[in-house]
Amino acid sequence: MNKPVIMWFRQDLRTRDHAALNAAAAAGEVICLYVLDDETPGQWRWGGASRWWLHRSLRELSKDLRLVLRRGRADAVIADVIKESGAKAVYFTRDYAPWSPPLEHRVKEICESAGATCHRFGGYLLHEPESIRNGSGEPYKVYTPFSRACFAADEPRLPSAAAKPVMWQRNVRSENLLDWNLLPKHLDWSKGFESEWLPGEEGARTRLSGFIEHGLSQYAEGRDRPDQSFTSRLSPHLHWGEISPAQCWAAVRGAMARAQGKLDVAGEKYLKEILWREFSYSILHHWPNLPEAPFRQEFAAFPWRNDPDALKKWQQGMTGYPIVDAGMRELWATGTMHNRVRMIAASFLTKDLLVPWTEGAKWFWDTLVDADIASNSASWQWVAGCGADAAPYFRIFNPVLQGEKFDPEGAYVRRWVPELRELPSNVIHRPWEAHHIQSNYPAPMIDHGFARNRALAALKQIKTAIA
Fold this sequence. Notes:
Layout: E1 5-9, H1 19-27, E2 30-36, H2 48-61, E3 67-71, H3 74-85, E4 89-93, H4 100-114, E5 117-121, H5 143-152, H6 193-196, H7 201-215, H8 219-222, H9 235-239, H10 245-258, H11 264-286, H12 308-316, H13 322-334, H14 339-352, H15 357-367, H16 373-384, H17 399-406, H18 411-416, H19 448-466
Parallel strand pairs: 1-2, 1-4, 2-3, 4-5
């Protein structure tokens, strides 16, 4: 009797350009297994927005593959499925979260004890974290030389075609996706997600082709404008592995070649964003406590404020600074926030309010559909000034000036802060100056000038302490 192989899906929910699935398909009949493991990640189990996306992504993948769904600790579930099916091998894509290496080691031991082989593949990144090193053989701690090293390396491999595995014909117990209760019930704050997103592999490919056709040419100048639509919005699809970075890289390179130089600046800008994702994972791999501890150790003594009321106002988009509040409301309504506004909102929380960056990271983890452990941690630390290649702590975004620069007509604010819709553009980012207009919009919760001076004094305090 032929024995099947197990394809253990993780954050690689696609059939195209999938090395592990291709290898599994070539090895025999396949059991396509997805495990919802809320135990192994601990506090970093999927948040609410992620669960919404996961439900729909699994539903889409099940149209192409017969999925076996199980809930439990991943290594224990895999052991059970090997025992139930007599599987001769397990195939999976490597993951880089801090809890993943021990998990993958346990899976390998389970396979060996059961007489099955274990096969791990790359594909979530362009470059494995061990492969990009500086001249001393150490991992890069600064993004720019890291990106230069990536560009200097060989071009990423070309994407492969869709796998066509033969499904194992014998029955293997599977749970019902609806029974996992991934969708919110009591307070369906995700109802706006449906009009914004199309999770799944086809949605990812449609998003990529649309960006190449309509957004890439304007990306270099337009990517910082939240009032315009020139970003790719591919991050959740990349996060869930519905599309690979190699597919994105190849598509952009192809567009650049066809444009004969006209897209070189915009294309390279976008490729650098893919490499920021790579850099974040490199840092996470080499410093696995990144989600919880500052990369720059001196910030462990930073005088953060425990201020639940301030945190709540920030979360609800009621700070009194329109560009910040627009971003936080966009996040709640759509599961995403424009990248420029993410930086402004994060700076306001950590520098104007002195609330710890970890609180912001936790909120994003629960509300972002692209809540990625590496990018979320690295980016929050970058803005807070305590991470690898961090923005200098004294670089404190002025939310009024940022709004006026990147949302000059106030279109973004008018969309997400309807209380200010009638304000003229010259005061929409400083509504407290429009005394003649009545609104239930709050006054600024803190004076930015005062907050900036307080933040600089806090920075001086830790510098003095370590001098």
